[in-house]
Amino acid sequence: MYVNPRLQPGAPTPSTRSQPNPFEDALYGAGPGLIRGGLGAYGEKFLGSSSEYVQSNISRYFSNPQYYFQVNDQYVRNKLKVVLFPFLHRGHWTRIMEPVGGRLSYKPPIYDINAPDLYIPFMAFGTYVVLAGLLLGLQGQFSPEALQWLFVKGLLGWSLQVMLLKVTLLSLGGVEPPLLDIVAYAGYSFAGLCLAIIGKIILRYMYFVMMPLACLCMGIFLVKTMKRVLSAEVRSYDASRLHYLLLFIAFAQFPLFSWLGNISLNWLF
To answer: Rounded to whole angstroms, how far apart are CA atoms 184 and 39?
Structure first.
């Protein structure tokens, strides 16, 4: 009887695996590494470009918040003089630039009187709320709810000033300075408001003299500042349109200051 030798007991069983292909093994070993390396490089490039894009837009619109708090006593005194009495400022209104990291950047407020800061606006806003609450207390109308309303009213007025300046700049060539610059310029309004409220606390009729003066000074300061921002950011614009918009900014200070300076519990008056 014929017996298959492969089925005999003890006979070695032949392997069913085909002969190894060196090219297939090389691709099998190198394929995952190449794929991981390629995806890693692509992901790093994509994430790197995305982070650079986000960082550039953040620095473009918001800048560095720490920059706006680099101040000292001398800067605060000189800046308040410029804000409250801009017609006495004999120097230039141009910001000073310096090379940083291979590009030009503006010097911080401690080294440049024309640089915007957020220390004075925040301090002036807090002083405004405190003085307004004190005035309500002298009138016998103070309450925690009234102080909360004054805080909201001040923030609303600050936001309206920011919107006014932002829309004005965008209507003249699409200039987009950092948002915190605009917030700082708008917040200087509370410095003049504090003086007007102090005058009202000391002598009631003094308010009617100091409030128009504060509006006029703030209008001059904003006109000078916005003109400098436009000349630095926009190369060509309609001069006649610019003059009308700057006049609008100046005259808009009167109703805004009158609303914020009238300390009461009403929304409109």
So the answer is: 44
